[in-house]
Amino acid sequence: MKTLTRMSAAFFILCLLASQAPGAEESTKIYTLSECVSTAIENSYRLPTYDSRITQNKAKVKETMDAFNPTMTFQGSYTYQEPAIPFEIQGLPFAFPAASPIVPSFYQQYNLAVSKLITSFGKVEAAARLQSLSSEQYKLQKSAEREAVVFNTINTYYMVLFNQELVKIAQADESDWKEQYKLTGAQYKRGTVARYDLLRVEVALAQSHDQVISTSKNLEVSKRNLRTLMGLPAETRIDRIEKTSVWESFEKDHMDRPLDMWKDICDKCHPALLLGRLAMTQGWFSLEVARLDNAPALSASSTYSRLTPTAFGENWAWKNSLALNIPIFDGGVRTEKMDQAWELIRQAQLNLDDTKRNTLWNVEKAYLDLHDLPPRLETAKKQVESAQESYRVAQVRYKAGLNTMVEVVDAHRALIVSETNQMQLLFSYYTQMAALSYATGVLFDELFLEGRTRE
Q1: Which of 139, 176, 199, 238 is 20–30 Å from 66 (CA)?
Q2: For residue 101, what are the contacts with CB-CB under 8 A and spacing of at least 6?
Q3: 297 with 123: CB under 8 angstroms?
């Protein structure tokens, strides 16, 4: 009976734990890099504005081309005249009596007109092409904004990872000093160590505790920044960031491609350079529109008019016309517009040259900074191994009475500094790979094109 009761109690406890487990898992949200970037792009408030501008500009292009569509207008009027205007008809057979009113005191008029622009000799078409280039401009601006969102999210994502590792290092450091404080306290009670050693351990323990608090605050700040970039509500809690594995293919591409290849990719793909070339194209189309400003226009119209019937019978007319409008002199407006268009082209060329110099320099700098990190990482790894060994030797020598607690504290501090430096370099290595792609203008395509998240 007791065995059955124990089995029932154990079964009840297992069921209780099983029922609580899913809820515990649901309360912890773990974000990966691809989730962070996808959420940031989805919740960005600026990206949809470019779609709205593109839609608006397409409507403007259609509005420009609608100039060739037929138009129909209707006009009606009613006029009352008081008094009526009489006149006399003298000496005519069957004439009306003298002073008979011929014109009525009121009359109605209706006009129905249909007109259509046949050709503007290229003026409307050039204006529509110039307007359509604004859609390409908004698309490139959206691409540049998306690149910035991805780059900022990646940087903040790795900042969270970096602070998570610093918190772990600080917590491990505090735990070590707690153990050391217990050991040194016991030794001090036995009289084997001086009070100075105990005080040194107390100071080191207090400093490690302060470091835990400081790194934890930095972690919360970085999580808050990431939450803001992702567009999540303020009450959303980011419990943990999942550490992303090394992107083998992404890393291999970045380390194997020569600098000239990166510059070629930048020249072909960077949104700023594409926008500069588009500005040049817009300048040339502006010049074409200015040149055609005085172009002739051929249009056709047909008008049906009907008035109030008079004593002489029906009063209506059907009028068809073909009009050719040829501007002869505009007071120099066309010439001034062409001069302005030439200046726009010159300014666009200067801006393009300056942008190209800056972007290629950014690519070269990002490339050199990235390739400078692997040897520094190897050096940092050796420094960590050396610091670990120095700390181990210092502890052994202290236990053997060959050195003081000062040497142990200094060795431990050197170990923490070397581990922090290694984490900083590793963080810089990942972000610098993203910086190189961002400087080239292909960060989004390199990481997320065709669904490749490379995690």
Answers
A1: 139
A2: 84, 85, 86
A3: yes
pLDDT tens-digit readout, 232-278: 887 777 776 666 554 555 677 777 889 999 999 999 999 999 999 99
Torsion of CA 116, 122, 124, 129, to 10 degrees: 140
The amino acid present at 189, given as its one-letter code, is K
The per-residue pLDDT of the chain, averaged, comes to 81
Element (DSSP H or E) covering residue 121: none
Q: Where are the beta strands (DSSP E) in 244-347?
A: 297-307, 316-325
> Is 53 within 8 Å of 98 (Cβ atoms)?
no
Do residues 188 and 199 lie in contact, with contact meaning Cβ atoms separated by under 8 Å?
A: no
Long-range contacts of 181-190 (CB under 8 A, 24+ apart): 181/205, 184/405
- pTM score above 0.85: no
**Using CA atoms, how far apart are residues 61 and 47, in angstroms rounded to an integer?**
22
Phi-psi region of 191 (alpha: psi -120 to 50; beta: other; left: phi over 0): left
CA contacts within 13 A on the Cβ side of 68: 13
Residue 154 · residue 33 · CB < 8 Å: yes
In angstroms, rounded to a whole number, what is the distance separating the alpha carbons of residues 151 and 155? 6
- Tell me the C-alpha distance between 281 and 126, whole Å: 12
